[in-house]
Amino acid sequence: MAVNTMSKEQAYAFVKAVTEQATGEKVLTPTDATSYITVGQKALAAGYDPLLGALSQVIERTLFAVRPYTAKFDKLIVSEELFGAITRKINFGDDDPEANQAYSLVEGESIDMYKVGKNKILELCFVGSDMWNGKKTVYGYQLDTAFKDADEGARFFSALILHFANEREQWLENMKRTVVTNFIAGKIQLETDDAEVTHVVHLLTEYNTATGNSYADIPSLRNAGAEAYADFIRFVYARIERLSDYMTERSRLYQRSIVVDGEPFRLNRHTPKDAQRLYLNADLVESIKTSVRAITYHENLLTLPGFETVNFWQAIDKPMSIDYTGNVIDETGKPKATGNIKSDVVAGVLFDKDAISMTIKHNSLKPTPWNVAGEYMNYFAKTDMRFANDFTEKGIVLLLD
Fold first, then answer.
1. How wide is the angle at C-alpha 81 spanned by C-alphas 77 and 87, nearest 5°?
2. Is residue 226 a contact partner of residue 284, using CB atoms and an 8 Å limit?
3. Which of 42-46, 74-78, 124-128, 138-142 bottoms out in mean pLDDT, i.e. has the lowest?
4. Which residue, 91, 245, 261, 389, shows the most beta carbons closer than 10 Å to its own?
């Protein structure tokens, strides 16, 4: 387990596994990311830093089937950190107000204006990172018979490098997708571990309570008719808007409670609208567009600065499902593994921009010298990044149950 320690984790096999689910090569598979997602922790635990055979000879025009791809979840990248092994986050706890003694003076007595009020400080540390490599070989004259002229050969190598860049983008995207899924799984775990605070909103349950209905699941709601489903979607839209409003209040709502020296640490946070991120399942977004925006013309929710439509959380064949074991923190601020979190009704997640983040340690594409004996060279893509969750920041998981 490299993350949450000061060592680095070889993540190539994990990146391959999450990519296979994301691309549909494999179906939804139980995924254990406890070695790859770092969480803000109160107590820092230190450790040791530890030939192409598919081309035919051609005589006519060649088309290269590749186009640029850009990784989703782009707003998760927060900084580049080339040096240092630890990111620390200093938090300040609240104090109670005191009585104004100016109006309670007593003859012959003085007021001590030098009484000490010690600051309440909570330091969270983020350590560890994930590494993987990619490699592509560029040949000298071995492929001459595959192309009709030098220009076509040059276009082939240009397309090859573009394909390589697309691979890297998808690897990165799927690790971003994983850090979002880790936060979702962690919040579902906290619904049990930190029950005094709301971490998960069960939208259908709340709708049933508010309307007096008793729908068991979304399919039964859809079977009740188009207007019944549209009414539910309007409720969902309004509920998310209210949650977004509540996030702007300075409070302990929607964040992990921490105990320091046996006492609750009074960590009150607020998340302005421009610091909020909202990821919603694509099917829910389309329902909102047709059931809400079409009749009310409200644009504010889906135009939050951090809004993004998500086609799937973990596996492309099951867009609203997760089957995941990840990292969260306990009440003392120490990392712990979640249970195996399974859900088929993950509609979205609303969170503070500092709750889910990615920092770049190294991300480079470099060539080797030319191998004069074999007439080829290799390009190596080296990636070293930290994917982090801070559960003391505000965040709410939206479930359609």
1. 90
2. no
3. 42-46
4. 389
**Cα–chain-centroid distance for residue 231?**
30
Alpha-carbon gap, residue 204 to 219, rounded angstroms? 11
pLDDT per residue as tens digits for the range 182-198: 999 999 999 999 999 99
Q: Terminal CA-to-CA distance of the chain, rounded, Å?
A: 34
DSSP 97-111: ----GGG---TT---
DSSP 8-state class, residue 74: G
Asked if residues 30 and 340 have their Cβ atoms less than 8 Å apart, the reply is yes
What is the distance between the alpha carbons of residues 149 and 132, in angstroms, rounded to a whole number? 36
Detail the DSSP E strand segments found in 40-158: 77-80, 86-92, 121-127, 129-139
Structure tokens at 42: 């109160």
Query: Which spans in 271-396 are helix H?
Result: 282-288, 294-296
Strand partners, 127: 86
Residue 227: both structure tokens together: 């207007």
As a whole number of Å, the CA-based R_g of the chain is 26
Q: How many C-beta neighbours within 10 Å does residue 59 have?
A: 6
Decide: 264 and 240 in contact? Cβ < 8 Å. no
CA distances from residue 307 to 74, 145, 199 in whole angstroms, order as listed: 11, 50, 19
Confidence (pLDDT) at 173:
85
Measured CA distances, 109 to 101, 117, 280 (Å)? 12, 21, 63
Question: Is 246 buried (19+), middle (13-18) or exposed (0-12) by CB count in 10 A?
Answer: middle
pTM over 0.85: no
Angle at 134 between CA 380 and CA 170, to 5 degrees: 130
The residue with tokens 């329902």 is 287
Number of residues that this document lists for the chain: 401
Q: How many CB atoms lie within 10 A of CB 197?
A: 14
Q: Across the strands, what pairs with 387?
A: 37, 358
Residue 310 has which token pair? 């998500």
HSE of 312, CA atoms in CB hemisphere, 13 A:
18
Return the residue matching tokens 């709502």: 253
- Which tens digits make up the pLDDT trace of 206-241? 999 999 999 999 999 989 988 899 899 989 988 999
